């Protein structure tokens, strides 16, 4: 007869071993659950997905459930390292492996890919996100295409659109109903990013695709009703980005390139902002902190297609800093938890709704400011400065009436100068 306490102690000791001390699927620390058919230790969140794979994986709590001697011995003989060596032997370098804070669809499809579909047990398995080709053939001539539900630029309606991802010319195109008229947009892979945003988009499979057009940031919000399909799209984008980066930077290692394939944003949320004189009324805006590009972008709402402005976040050595504050003499702000960002050219004042938000924004901005600037960061800063100068010129010479285009054919502006005047006067 099994000794309950002895087996529990053995399992807890196994879970503390370095190879088992993190979840086998998402890397969360101190897993309390185990699959006694796969021989792996997993966290609570991943255990839920395993329960849906009952023909493959059976789950028990290592603390609360009863374990037979045979099952404990099986866990001893296997473990996370052995499972990784088998089920993850040939994971493509571009394939996204979920982290503890990632959304459910990423975690679920990673687990299904490993244990249900066994996508990574053989070296040249044909994979859906490489258009059914081994990766070496995908690099040569792949076109990945399919239908996604896309949010309209100026409304909240999602409509089904055809998307085509091409390695040949490094582009992502999408089409309206009549494909004979050509693509509605052709997007270069060069500055393309994709990140899952289920809460923001309001769909469990929501994906935000971001790219640059005319030196401005453009967002596409899409989803697919099938979780497998949307994760395939995500990894297809990562695959083509990896090919592009290897082509653009042939001497760079995969370790250097992986962070640039796609990235999640360091911090997002609403803050109130004022203008350069700090006497203008505060306006509520949605902010995104892109730590890799060192940019603080802001939008009118969280589902806006185009940003209203951008603040370059340099390093401490270049005169950038951030701190909490309670600014005096401001007007129009409903929120009272202030954040001040100092740049060499201007002081930015933002207001947060709660002290927790204030602390999180300050911490996130300090993370970026504490990092030394890389050579490409200087290019990003120059581009931001050029946009600023062009928009200042636009306000000075190009405003005649509402929605008048400036002589440089930049985006339409309103006669009152709008919000661009605030940030362009840094």
From TrEMBL:
GO terms for cellular component: cytoplasm; plasma membrane. PROSITE patterns: ARFGAP (PS50115), PH_DOMAIN (PS50003). Signal peptide: none annotated. InterPro entries: Arf-GAP_dual-PH_domain, ARFGAP/RecO, ArfGAP_dom, ArfGAP_dom_sf, PH-like_dom_sf, PH1_ADAP, PH2_ADAP, PH_domain. Keywords: Cytoplasm, GTPase activation, Metal-binding, Repeat, Zinc, Zinc-finger. GO terms for biological process: heart development. Its main location: cytoplasm. This is ArfGAP with dual PH domains 2.
């Amino acid at each position: 007869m099994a000794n309950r306490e002895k087996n529990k102690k053995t399992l807890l000791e196994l879970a503390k071993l370095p190879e088992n001390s993190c979840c086998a699927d998402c890397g969360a620390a101190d897993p309390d659950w185990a699959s006694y058919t796969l021989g792996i230790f997993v966290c609570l969140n991943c255990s839920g997905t395993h329960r849906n794979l009952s023909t493959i994986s059976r789950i028990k709590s290592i603390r609360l459930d009863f374990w037979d001697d045979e099952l404990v011995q099986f866990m001893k003989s296997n473990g996370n390292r052995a499972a990784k060596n088998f089920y993850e032997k040939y994971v493509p370098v571009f394939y996204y492996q979920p982290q503890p804070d990632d959304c459910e669809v990423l975690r679920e499809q990673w687990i299904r890919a490993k244990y249900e579909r066994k996508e990574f047990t053989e070296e040249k398995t044909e994979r859906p996100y490489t258009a059914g080709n081994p990766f070496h053939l995908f690099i040569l001539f792949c076109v990945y295409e399919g239908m996604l539900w896309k949010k309209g630029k100026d409304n909240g309606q999602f409509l089904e659109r055809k998307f085509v991802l091409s390695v040949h010319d490094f582009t992502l195109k999408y089409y309206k109903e009549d494909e004979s008229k050509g693509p509605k947009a052709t997007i270069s892979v060069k500055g393309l990013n994709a990140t899952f945003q289920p809460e923001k988009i309001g769909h469990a499979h929501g994906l935000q695709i971001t790219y640059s057009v005319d030196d401005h940031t453009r967002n596409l919000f899409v989803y697919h009703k099938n979780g497998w399909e949307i994760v395939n799209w995500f990894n297809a984008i990562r695959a083509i980005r990896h090919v592009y980066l290897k082509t653009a930077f042939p001497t760079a290692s995969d370790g250097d390139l992986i962070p640039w394939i796609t990235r999640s944003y360091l911090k997002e949320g609403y803050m109130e902002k004022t203008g350069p004189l700090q006497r203008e009324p505060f306006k509520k805006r949605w902010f995104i902190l892109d730590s890799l590009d060192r940019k603080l972008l802001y939008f009118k709402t969280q589902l806006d297609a185009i940003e209203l402005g951008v603040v370059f976040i340099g390093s401490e050595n270049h005169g950038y800093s951030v701190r909490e504050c309670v600014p005096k003499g401001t007007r129009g702000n409903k929120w009272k938890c202030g954040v001040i960002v100092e740049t060499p050219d201007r002081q930015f004042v933002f207001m947060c709704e709660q002290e927790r938000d204030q602390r999180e924004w300050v911490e996130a901005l300090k993370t970026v400011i504490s990092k030394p600037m890389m050579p490409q960061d200087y290019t990003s800063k120059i581009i931001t400065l050029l946009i600023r100068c062009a928009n200042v010129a636009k306000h000075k010479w190009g405003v005649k009436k509402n929605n008048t285009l400036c002589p440089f054919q930049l985006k339409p502006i309103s006669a009152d100068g709008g919000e661009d005047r605030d940030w362009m006067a840094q």
